[in-house]
């Protein structure tokens, strides 16, 4: 019984974008596509991630792979670059429902696409944005079925 109460308390914990990672929707054509959880997390999850984010953030600087002192210092510029890339390629996104999260120099694209070729094509476009180290598309093809990402709780 105590375990069930603890689980219930955890589920009631508010979700927050503790690290201010850019998170935004770029398209909304597929009705019913679940909104991803994106960078939202509980305070307990924030504590778990804080050390690894700090370590990951400074590793690129220490390795001489960044001109900024932290991987996460690129996030805002990358987010603006992704927005510009989507605007410049609007035709490719007109039949999708997608959200973007930028964490460090990694772009996560989540949502729904009309066909299986769209995910890799969108990853390739995101990789052209300056400073992006990796782009990962986790997308559902079509209007039904499970999504391959954590959806926002209802």
Automatic annotation (TrEMBL):
Residues 76-141 form the BON domain. It holds the Pfam family BON. It comes from the Bacteria. This is BON domain-containing protein.
């Amino acid at each position: 019984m105590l375990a069930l109460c603890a689980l219930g308390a955890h589920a009631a914990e508010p979700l927050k974008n503790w690290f201010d990672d850019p998170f935004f929707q770029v398209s909304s054509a597929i009705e019913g596509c679940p909104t991803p959880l994106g960078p939202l997390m509980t305070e307990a999850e924030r504590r778990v991630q804080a050390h690894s984010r700090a370590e990951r953030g400074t590793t690129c600087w220490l390795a001489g792979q960044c001109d900024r002192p932290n991987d996460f210092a690129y996030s805002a510029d990358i987010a603006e670059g992704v927005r510009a890339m989507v605007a410049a390629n609007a035709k490719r996104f007109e039949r999708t429902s997608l959200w973007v999260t930028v964490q460090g120099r990694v772009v996560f694209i989540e949502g729904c696409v009309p066909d299986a070729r769209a995910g890799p094509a969108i990853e390739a476009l995101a990789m052209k944005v300056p400073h992006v180290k990796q782009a990962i598309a986790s997308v559902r093809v079509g209007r039904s079925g499970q999504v391959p990402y954590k959806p926002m709780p209802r």
